[in-house]
Q: What sequence folds into this?
């Protein structure tokens, strides 16, 4: 799962245009919203699109995103359990 976490960090930096952030700065357990990376609701929509496009995961309930996008660890675990690609 470590490779998936690193892959997610690369994709998040790329998709959200976080040019000033390196993968080393993103800790696996840091919050993605609020503290941590400080992402916002527009970023959440981008992450939902990323899950669909790259992993074949469609989120029917946007409220579930709050649980999934807590950290890199929670995203990676969800992807491992639900990916179709």
A:
């Amino acid at each position: 799962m470590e490779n998936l976490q690193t892959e997610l960090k690369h994709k998040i930096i790329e998709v959200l245009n976080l040019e000033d952030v390196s993968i080393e700065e993103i800790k696996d357990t840091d919050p993605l919203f609020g503290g941590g990376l400080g992402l916002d609701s527009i970023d959440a929509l981008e992450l939902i699109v990323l899950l669909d496009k790259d992993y074949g995961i469609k989120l029917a309930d946007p409220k579930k995103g709050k649980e999934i996008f807590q950290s890199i660890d929670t995203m990676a675990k969800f992807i491992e359990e639900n990916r179709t690609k």
Observations:
- The CA atoms of residues 70 and 82 lie 17 Å apart.
- Residues 2-82 form a domain with the Non-ribosomal Peptide Synthetase Peptidyl Carrier Protein; Chain A fold (CATH 1.10.1200.10).
- The chain has a mean pLDDT of 91.
